[in-house]
Structures are given as C-alpha cells and as structure tokens.
Design goal:
single chain, mainly alpha, 21 helices
C-alpha cells in the first residue's frame, strides 16, 4: 500500500498536478488497498477536521505580522545593524548575511521570505566584495534556514497541534539549535573568505554607530521577545500571541509612518494566499496521515526499529535519514504533516523527549528547503541571484552538509535543545 501511495504521489507531482490534489489522489489509492468504502466518509471528515484546530489560527497571524514588519521597512534596518556588528571583518558581507538571518528569524520565521528579502539586497553586494555568485546565493538560501528554527516557527506550531506539545517549550528549545546553525555557517564563511583571499571592505563601526543601529532596529528585535515571553509565562496562548504581535506590527508601522494603505492591502493579500496554500496542504495531508495510522504504519515501523529501541540517538538518526530523503521529494508542510503522526509514537516508545523530537523534525524539514530537487529556497535564491537553477543545485550541497552536521550535533546532545525549556519550567 505504501509503495502504491508513494508512486501515485510522485507521478502526479511530475505531471504538474497541484500538491493537495496529489495527496488526495494518493490517499484514494491507499483506501483502495485498505477499504475503499471508508473513503466516502473519512476523506471529507479528515480533510476539514485537519484544519479545525484553534492552534492553527496562530499561523495566519504570524504570517501577517511578518508581512507587516517587512512592509514597514525593517529589512534595511536589520541589515544595517548586522553590518555595524560584523561588516568590518574579512569577507564581512558573508557574516552580515548570516547575522541578518538570525535577526530576521524573530520577525517572520519564513525561510523563503528571508531568502527573497536578503538575497535581493546582499547577493549583488557580496559579488562586488569578491564572492562568487553561486556561493553568495547558496549562503543566502542556507542561512535563511535559521528562520523556521528560532521562534516564531510555523513548523513548530504545526508539530505542536499534531502532538499536543507545548508551543512555548518548542519555541524556547529552538533558540540554541538556531544559533548553532548560524554559528556553523559563520565558520564556513570564515574558511571560504580565507581560502579565496577576501579582504575587509569597510571600517569598524564606532560604539556610537552600533548603538545608533541598535536604536533603530530595536522595534524589530523586541518582537520575538514579546512572542516567546508572552507564551512561556502563560499570559496568552500561541494564537493570542499571534494577534498581539499583529497589533504591535500595525502600531509600529503607523507610528513610523511607513505602513501605507497600499502596503497594508498587499500584506493582507500575501497573507491570504500563503495561508490558503498552507491550510489546503494541511487538510489533504491529514487524510493521508489518518490512512497511514489506520493501516498501523507506526506499529510496523516500530517493529523494524525494535533492535534500536534502547538507543534514542540511533532512532533519531534513522528517523532523520528517512525525513531527509522524503524532504527531497515532497513539499515541507505536507512532509511534516505526514511524518509527525508516524514518527511520534515510535519516538515516545524509544524514550525520546517530544520537545527534542519536535526541534529535530523542524530542522530536518527546514533542511529540505535547500535540498534539490524540491527545495523552495534554492529556486528563490537562483531567481534573485539571476543564475541557472542547475548551477544552484551543484553549489548548494556544501551548505546542505554543514546543516546536516549541525543537525547531527543537536541529535547527539539533547541538552542543547532542552536547556532553555528546563530553565523556564
């Protein structure tokens, strides 16, 4: 049954059929092997039931808040802050790229949005500094992976809704792994800058200049603290936190007079389009997830992993390997929705902390954003950098390997993930 579902899905993807229809067609094939009479009742029930969750209401709110902040001109302010901190170093714009992604992670949590916003500004500047176009585009795509890991994170909200895990704990757990991933790309950029002989292009900023950049970037930097602290200390739910940050972004845009009616309209339209895309994929994925659970796929997978049951690290590495290959062929939201219900009972049976599992799955799904042939950030980076997609496919693999190395580090040292949740709990 599973093979038939996978083949049906891949064939339809190659034919250009919309993703949610591919998922529904694959589920119908699965029902044929199980009990097709169930399809008449369970397909509509699971399709609408999959998005009938109060927790999922946080997703459009966080997307809208991110769009509002981008429309308010915070992009240039955050880049200016990053440049004042690390721009004077050898190959400084590479560091600016990574540090800007860390700052942007707290604004919208969207890797694709970060790739588009930073790539259009930094890739041309990095080329003038001496970076190759393929490296500049690859670093932009890769560093944007930090966005969905450091809160707020749409992937973590989806995982929490599927597993009843605390969103606040997941948000806290993502901070250190996100910074670790950023540090890995900084080391990579350091080695690249020395290898090709890049030199510093700007002078070190004065203390006054750094404080000036912090002052103008403070409104954007405060946003993630509002989101995380309000959830962690129990003042609001994740959905209410989303509404709170939308109000904050609106107020910010009105106060600095950067948010016009046309920009507000554009932010609303972009939010509606992206939310509709995500929710229809969630709905279709819920049908397939229910079918796989009905066919007892988690129990079958647990049997295969029985020899490793007492070694949680090995189980996580195996699950990550499976996710890596599935992520290469499937859109990230659908992969998360399909794999989480299958992996969660297996991980719990192996003694893996659900918060740690959530961060590991989030990083896995995020890496898929730069993994050919389906990685969305690769296509966006190629478009904004004006290079052939085939060249991007060739040059992105060193960045994928660095991200995988950071992922393995997080798997092997769970304390990195669980430190902040344990401190605040």
């Amino acid at each position: 049954m599973l093979i038939a579902i996978v083949i049906t899905f891949l064939v339809n993807i190659l034919l250009g059929v919309p993703l949610f229809i591919c998922l529904l067609l694959a589920s119908l094939i699965g029902f044929y092997f199980v009990d097709f009479s169930l399809a008449y009742r369970m397909v509509p029930q699971q399709f609408f039931g999959g998005i009938n969750s109060f927790a999922l209401m946080a997703i459009p709110l966080f997307i809208f808040a991110g769009n509002l902040m981008n429309s308010s001109g915070l992009t240039s302010q955050l880049i200016r802050l990053a440049n004042s901190l690390v721009g004077h170093l050898r190959g400084g714009l590479g560091y600016v790229n990574v540090v800007s992604s860390v700052f942007f992670a707290g604004v919208n949590g969207s890797a694709v949005a970060d790739t588009s916003a930073l790539g259009s500004l930094l890739v041309p500047a990095m080329k003038k500094e001496g970076y190759s176009t393929s490296y500049a585009a690859g670093l932009t795509a890769a560093s944007s992976l930090i966005g969905p890991i450091i809160p707020p994170s749409i992937f973590m909200i989806l995982y929490a809704s599927l597993t009843n895990t605390s969103v606040g704990d997941l948000f806290l757990a993502g901070v250190i792994p996100g910074l670790l991933l950023g540090g890995a790309f900084i080391i990579m950029n350091y080695l690249y800058a020395r290898k090709v002989g890049l030199q510093s292009q700007t002078e070190r900023s004065s203390v006054k200049g750094i404080l000036y950049a912090f002052w103008y970037s403070a409104p954007a930097l405060i946003a993630p603290f509002i989101i995380v602290s309000s959830i962690v200390f129990g003042f609001v739910t994740p959905t209410e936190s989303g509404a709170l940050i939308v109000a904050y972004a609106l107020l910010l845009g009105l106060l600095n007079r950067s948010l016009s009616f046309s920009k507000l309209r554009e932010a609303l339209i972009d939010t509606a389009i992206l939310t509709g895309t995500i929710f229809v994929i969630i709905a279709a994925s819920s049908v397939v997830s229910w079918l796989l659970a009905y066919a007892q796929l988690p129990s079958q997978l647990l049997v295969y992993l029985e020899p490793f049951k007492n070694n949680p690290t090995t189980v996580l590495l195996i699950l990550s390997l499976i996710t890596f290959f599935i992520g290469m062929l499937m859109e990230e939201v659908s992969a998360l929705m399909l794999l989480t219900p299958v992996f969660f009972p297996v991980a719990i049976a192996s003694g893996i902390d659900p918060v740690h599992l959530g961060v590991v799955i989030t990083i896995n799904i995020t890496i898929a954003l730069i993994t050919p042939p389906m990685g969305a950030c690769v296509f966006v980076a190629a478009a904004v950098s004006k290079i052939e997609i085939t060249e991007m496919f060739k040059s992105i693999w060193p960045f994928v390997m660095v991200a995988v190395f950071a992922q393995i580090f997080v798997i092997c040292f769970p304390s990195l993930t669980l430190l902040l949740p344990s401190v605040f709990n």
